[in-house]
Write a structure and sequence with these properties.
Layout lengths: L9 H8 L3 H7 L3 H25 L4 H18 L3 H7 L11 H26 L9 H13 L13 H16 L11
Helix pairs in contact: 1-2, 3-4, 3-6, 4-6, 4-8, 6-7
Length: about 190
Amino acid sequence: REKGLEATSVNDIAERLGTDRASVYYYYGGKQEIFLALVRHAVEEVVVVAESIAASQESSTVRLKRLMRAALDGYERNYPIMFLYIQEDMRRVPGDGSEAGAELQELGRRYEAALGKITQDGVNAGEFHEDLDDSLLKFAILGAMNWTHRWFVPGGRLTGAQVGEAFADYLLKGVRRPRQRSRNSA
């Protein structure tokens, strides 16, 4: 987190662990392998929760709010690993040709699919504005959540779950169709 993946050396890692480079290389082929191993577990946790939420029978509004809350809670629980992963460009890092990198790419695809299911269901069910581009909404949500790596640090005024819930509230106010008033309530 301090130097970024590119500028961090295996020597830096060994020094932080209180060991030597040889000990690190005994277990890992290099810093990329260490990074991917750490990230894979954290990302998988968030993806499994997202898929579970997307598959539920709840309304799209409820599922979207739950997913955003759970994702940012997962980011916080796996801090700084998830934030470092996002900072290091999630699309570039797994492209190393390794099995771990391919697994991370697949996890990213699954996460986007889970979020996409919720946004598409919301439009298709008439819960969100009918002229809304559900794919664009998905990317807006991903952008909002992924930008938190620039400013969110656990232990601050809000928890990750609270940030996720607030983001969902802000976004949902813009995408939900207004409820039709009944003639009797006019």
